[in-house]
Structure formats: structure tokens, C-alpha cells
Task: structure prediction
Amino acid sequence: MKHDRILILDFGSQVTQLIARRVREAHVYCEVHSCEVTNDFIRDFNPKGIILSGSHMSAYEESTDVAPAAVFELGVPVLGICYGMQTMAEQLGGKVESGAQREFGYAEVREHGHTKLLEKISDFTNEEGQSFLKVWMSHGDKVTKMPEGFKLMCSTPSCPIAGMADEKRGFYAVQFHPEVTHTVKGKEILNTFVLDICKAKPDWIMGSFAEESVQKIKEQVGKDEVILGLSGGVDSSVAAALIHKAIGDQLTCVFVDNGLLRLHERKQVEETF
Result:
């Protein structure tokens, strides 16, 4: 079964995997790949939408990673998060500068512009009728000039451009982190992007992923034999379990003690497998 796919490009954030988790909780298939993938890879992946993760880097430095050009040429919605917002701004003609005041932790951002991403999402409204979101910030740099075609989506007193959008092209960006639980409506924001803006079908669950993987392995291996280097770590252990479920005794695991196991864990791995 083919599923709609969301591509997450990783620029090195500590919480990139949380973005993937939120997308999968919406029952949409996604994959995390390095921001260094090629334009051809992105086109072949054929995503319904793309999410750019955060990073420790500064978007205005020459040595900094950037999103492949295909991200903005493919014609699918794109969401930039934190650094993802900054590299989107820099690459499309905006400007990013080092902020005089670093924001780390809880913040309240005021919503502007009634964009599709935030128009139905709010945590509270002040006496003047302005809507606000309770979010988690973690940045030193900030966008100081939006690219042509973008409009302001949200702001804080110390970060006047905390979110921006070019809805004609389906480009959205936020300076805060919707993937973390500290952003109260973060799940709703990501769901809105993935389900309403990208129009991805919510027809994927982890259980079906395992079943589909087993079937693919059966078809790929056929009657051949498979040898797997097994270290006892998560990656090789999951691979061993799935392959064994698919082809049984056609699989031979070779235990590789790489020296990183805990005390007595070698014996546990051998007994388990």
C-alpha cells in the first residue's frame, strides 16, 4: 500500500525526531533525512509536504547548511521550524541577524494575519481581542527581514518576526518549536500543516509499517539467504526481528560485540536472539 509522505530535513536539532513522532501520531507516513540530500532525492521522494528542522547553526554564515533548491521549487507546502525558518528566509531573499536578546523557554506569541496554519488555533485572547499562543522558544538569531511575498504570522516583543507565511506558495515558518510538549497547541499546529495544508491522508500506523516491511522483505529476499551483523543495539535488533519474521531460518545473525555494551549485556543479547 502506498502512503502519502512527509519529508523532514534534519539540520542537526536535538528534537528532530519529535517532529517525526508528531507527524506519525497524525497517522501520516514520514521520514527524516539529512539536509544534505540531493535535489533528485527530494523529487524522487515525492513528498506531500516538507518540514525543515531546527539547528545549532546560524543561517547567515557561509559555512552553514542550506535546504536543497528543490525544497522551494517542488510546489509542495514547506514548514520551517526555528533554524528552518531562518534558512528559508535567507535562501528566499530575507535577512537573518544575531539577536541582542536570546530567547530560551516559555514565551507568548501574538498571532497576526489569520493564516491557514494558525487561524483556528489559540491559547488565549487579551482584553484587546488579540490572540496568543503559549510556546517554547530556543534561539539567538532571528529573522529581521521577510522575503518578498511573505506576511507576518506571529511576534513577540523581543522577536518581531516570530512567524511568517507565503500562502500563495504554501510556505510557513515559525521561530518556536511546535514539536515539543511545552508548546501547548504544537500538536494542533503540526496536524494543521500536515493534514489540512499538505492534504496528506492519515492512513498510516506503526503496526501497518511493520506488516508492510515484512512483506517487502519477503518479496525482496525470495529464496536467498541473508546474513545480518547484530550488535544488540536498537537498529540491528529491530532489523533482525523484522527480517526473521519475514524469512525465518533463511536469516543468519552474526553477533558483533563492538565494545559498547553494558556489563553482562553480551550474554543477554546472545540469549535473546
